[in-house]
Write a structure and sequence with these properties.
heterodimer; A: 277 residues; mainly alpha; MetI-like fold; 13 helices; B: 286 residues; 0% strand
């Protein structure tokens, strides 16, 4: 049997292992464990009863559906953006490249109130939308927009390095064999980008499902219509209803882990199909 | 027919028209999605003039919020950096079973909603819990107090530094450290004079990412802070409270201050990428 830890001349085993495991336990494992224990003592039946209410299902479904749509938008726009940033020299490219990270750097509450001010019916874009009869803030469109904002950098940042690594000779070979540029892009380039793009998509999706700060300002928070799952937890906590909050928390945790698992499987499948990239 | 010159068309790139439309699409999308909200923050903050904006930042609660955010960041960053270095050292310098599992656990906070993270901390350390009750009885409340906010901040920023350091340290291998050890250097000396110079830019990069998130964290902190004005209301929490009270200028002034800090972080990060690309993780090189 393999030893648990191989002998090594490197110093600091005890110290680095001690700090790592202690902090991991206090900051991450114990709190998540507390949530699971709370769910267990509350009882699986009771947890199910809390989750199996129309308002909770509506919120979970809303969070999941809009996150999926936002991540899909980010997948398409993110790949486009990465391609433009790597392949086309144009004035202002550096600035655009730096701006991609802004949604990571900008606090979510700031993004939330800025988007609301912009897309509310009396805001700059909201007013324009009202002219054509579209309401954005305080509807599901608003939530979609906020989720697109927070997930924007993921796909671009995972795909960019892959585009840089593409051997131009592959494209030349494809062209000499008579492929049109469009065919080359579709049959050669896109498959090479797929695994990285999928990773970015997954990160964007995971982020969006749990997102709270940027959404609550623009959502309007109407039960059954624009109420997201994390908000339900906050509402339960404000009423000191810890059991119900834990039940919804466990449902959300399960949802995100199921998604991560599904996406990992898709990734393994796409790597196998396309070959290691 | 020989003098009809077909324009040369590079077969390995898109037509000029396609290029221009894609660039236009990218720029337009970014302007609408990112540029406009950014400008909006400053426009709303200055809606009643610079004086009003500065005045709103000068009152007692606003100053307390700014101070609190700075204190929390000042506690969370070194702790996170320490964890990141320790975890990266443990993972890259030793071989042990369950390494992949450990890395998964370190990455776990990225896939947990901040609100759920806050909930977990309330359940673990809240006054109703076993540990929390004992701590409150001994005069050290965690939830609705500073330690809880620090814990929440640590949770959401947990993987940042470790994730930057691990790929860099894997790439660098162990040979340099082994050489130093053979020459009789002590463990600390090896770390300080061999490892640290190799990882310092990646470390700074990770700390920058961590910093941006720590100052701006909202969901997790909203759950654990209790939102006590002047005491546990951080800058993002104060923004929410002011906004809900329709104090638009005050809310956006605070937001503008955070945005300015975010832009500064972004600038430093971009400079790091330009100057020290070779010392950052392979995925960051572009």
């Amino acid at each position: 049997m393999r030893p648990l830890i191989h002998r090594s001349p490197m110093p600091g085993l005890g110290l680095s292992m001690g700090i790592t495991l202690t902090m991991l336990t206090i900051v991450v494992l114990l709190p998540i464990g507390a949530l699971l224990v709370k769910g267990a003592t509350f009882g699986p039946g009771n947890v199910w009863e809390v989750v199996n209410r129309e308002r909770v299902w509506a919120a979970l479904f809303l969070s999941f559906r809009l996150s999926l749509l936002a991540a899909l938008f980010n997948l398409v726009f993110g790949v486009l953006l990465a391609w433009v940033l790597v392949r086309y020299p144009f004035p202002g490219r550096r600035l655009l490249d730096a701006a991609v990270d802004l949604p990571f750097a900008l606090p979510t509450a700031v993004a939330g109130i800025a988007l609301t001010a912009l897309y509310a019916p009396n805001g700059l874009f909201g007013g324009l939308a009202k002219e054509v009869g579209l309401k954005i803030a305080y509807t599901q469109w608003g939530i979609f927009l906020a989720l697109v904002f927070v997930g924007l950098p993921f796909v671009t940042r995972t795909v960019q390095p892959v585009i840089e690594e593409i051997d131009r000779e592959v494209e030349e070979a494809s062209a000499t064999l008579g492929a049109t540029r469009f065919t080359t892009l579709r049959r050669i380039i896109l498959p090479m980008l797929a695994p990285a793009a999928l990773t970015g998509f997954a990160l964007s999706l995971a982020r969006a499902v749990g997102e709270y700060g940027s959404v609550i300002f623009i959502a309007g928070n109407i039960p059954l219509v624009t109420e997201i799952a994390p908000l339900l937890i906050v509402i339960q906590l404000e009423e000191f209803n810890y059991d119900a909050a834990a039940a919804i928390g466990i449902a959300m945790l399960t949802l995100s882990f199921a998604m991560l698992l599904a996406i990992n499987l898709i990734q393994i499948w796409s790597r196998r199909r396309i070959g290691h990239v | 027919m020989s003098d009809t010159t077909l324009p040369f068309r590079n077969p390995t790139s898109e037509t000029v028209l396609a290029r221009r439309s894609l660039i236009a699409l990218a720029v337009l999308g970014m302007a609408l999605l990112v540029g406009a909200p950014l400008l909006m923050v400053f426009a709303e903050a200055l809606a009643k003039g610079l004086g009003a904006a500065l005045e709103s930042l000068g009152n007692r609660d606003a100053r307390a919020a700014i101070q609190l955010t700075l204190i929390i960041t000042a506690i969370a960053l070194p702790l996170n950096a320490m964890f990141g270095i320790a975890a990266a050292w443990f993972i890259t310098k030793f071989d042990f079973r369950g390494k992949a599992f450990l890395i998964t656990l370190i990455d776990l906070p990225f896939s947990v909603s901040p609100v759920v993270a806050g909930l977990c901390i309330v359940l673990m350390f809240g006054a109703n819990s076993l540990i929390g009750g004992w701590l409150v009885a001994h005069g050290l409340p965690i939830v609705f107090a500073l330690p809880g906010i620090v814990l929440a901040t640590l949770f959401v920023t947990f993987p940042f530094v470790a994730r930057e350091l691990i790929p860099v340290m894997i790439e660098q291998g162990r040979a340099e450290e082994e050489a130093a050890l053979t020459l009789g250097a002590s463990g600390w000396r090896v770390f300080r004079t061999v490892t640290l110079p190799n990882i310092r830019w990646a470390l700074l990069y990770g700390v920058l990412l961590c910093n941006a998130r720590a100052m701006g964290e909202f969901g997790a902190v909203a759950v654990v802070s209790g939102k006590i004005r002047g005491q546990t209301a951080t800058m993002p929490i104060t923004i929410e409270m002011l906004y809900n009270e329709y104090l638009s200028v005050a809310a956006f002034s605070m937001a503008a201050l955070l945005t300015a800090l975010a832009l500064l972080t972004l600038l430093l990060k971009t400079l790091l990428e330009l100057r020290h690309a070779d010392a950052l993780a392979a995925t960051r090189r572009h």
